[in-house]
């Protein structure tokens, strides 16, 4: 209960964040502009905190909220094409109780997994600056500290992968990003598994297939069970 309470406090802190003027302006502009398909919906238009099981052993790290996905719904990977690919995979792997994630009150429950991102505000062209990433990363560090059972991390995309490496104190120049790559260091329990991001650009071109993505989660389960 103490962990959940502290996560709730962090969530409130993230939602109130105004550190990056460019991102504040863009997220609010996008929320007011709306996409035609969602013109009758109220957009979240604020920073998006992580969510999931406070007792999770597995952390999933993405890049940033989608303009008309998380920036609209207020929940990571919810309401856009990336989530439409991610949550069915999590459901098949039994990390999620349902394959759909449409809005924040849709009944989705995550088991043994917590989903977050490098940046909490939607960036223009999906490209946060180096400074914006640096300002936002402390929130990810705090989330990791508040997940007492954390054993492994799945990084979705190269930016999430290399930023997570930095947080783990590793030198990115010595490690290669490729789909399915697994890293665990001597005398450390924490491990890192790399995956292509489930963006439409990757899934519709066949760069990331359902079978490839399913294997990521099966590998994650295998590594979780191997960690003592």
Question: What is the element layout, followed by pairings?
Answer:
Elements: H1 2-15, H2 21-33, E1 51-52, E2 58-62, H3 70-73, H4 81-92, E3 113-117, H5 130-145, E4 152-156, H6 158-167, E5 182-184, E6 191-195, H7 200-203, H8 210-226
Parallel strand pairs: 2-3, 2-4, 4-6
Antiparallel strand pairs: 1-3, 5-6
Give a verbal description of the structure.
39% of the residues lie in helices and 11% in strands. The protein has helices at residues 2-15, 21-33, 70-73, 81-92, 130-145, 158-167, 200-203, 210-226, and strands spanning 51-52, 58-62, 113-117, 152-156, 182-184, 191-195. Helix 4 (81-92) crosses helix 8. The chain is globular, with a radius of gyration of 17 Å. It has a single domain (2-226), classed as Uracil-DNA Glycosylase, subunit E, CATH 3.40.470. Strand 5 and strand 6 (191-195) form a beta hairpin. The mean pLDDT is 95. The chain is α/β, with parallel strands linked by helices and 228 residues long. It is built from 8 helices and 6 strands, in the order ααββααβαβαββαα. Strands 1-3-2-4-6-5 form a 6-stranded mixed sheet, with helices on both faces.
Poorly predicted spans:
none
Structural class: alpha/beta
Average pLDDT over all residues: 95
Q: Count of helices?
A: 8
Shape: globular
Q: Give the terminus-to-terminus CA distance.
A: 24 Å
How many distinct folded domains?
1
- At the first level of CATH, what is the class? Alpha Beta
Count of extended strands = 6
Strand order of the largest sheet: 1-3-2-4-6-5
Order of helices and strands: HHEEHHEHEHEEHH
Superfamily at the CATH H level? Uracil-DNA glycosylase-like domain
The CATH architecture is 3-Layer(aba) Sandwich
The proportion of residues in beta strands is 5-15%
Task: Predict the CATH topology.
Answer: Uracil-DNA Glycosylase, subunit E
């Amino acid at each position: 209960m103490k962990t959940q309470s502290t996560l709730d406090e962090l969530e409130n802190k993230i939602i109130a964040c105004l550190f990056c003027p460019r991102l504040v302006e863009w997220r609010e502009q996008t929320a007011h502009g709306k996409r035609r398909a969602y013109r009758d919906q109220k957009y979240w238009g604020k920073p998006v905190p992580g969510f999931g099981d406070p007792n999770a052993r597995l952390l999933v790290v993405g890049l940033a909220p989608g303009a008309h996905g998380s920036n609209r719904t207020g929940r990571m990977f919810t309401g856009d094409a990336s989530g439409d690919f991610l949550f069915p995979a999590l459901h098949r792997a039994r990390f999620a109780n349902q394959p759909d994630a449409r809005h924040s009150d849709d009944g989705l429950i995550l088991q043994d997994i917590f989903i977050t991102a490098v940046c909490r505000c939607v960036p223009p062209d999906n490209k946060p600056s180096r400074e914006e990433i640096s300002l936002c990363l402390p929130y990810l560090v705090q989330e990791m500290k508040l997940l007492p059972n954390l054993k492994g991390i799945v990084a979705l995309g190269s930016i999430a992968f290399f930023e997570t490496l930095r947080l783990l104190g590793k030198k990115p120049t010595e490690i290669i990003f490729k789909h399915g790559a697994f890293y665990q260091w001597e005398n450390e329990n924490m491990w890192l598994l790399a995956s292509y991001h489930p963006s439409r650009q990757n899934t519709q071109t066949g760069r990331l297939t359902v079978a490839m993505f399913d294997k990521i989660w099966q590998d994650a389960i295998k590594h979780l069970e191997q960690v003592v």
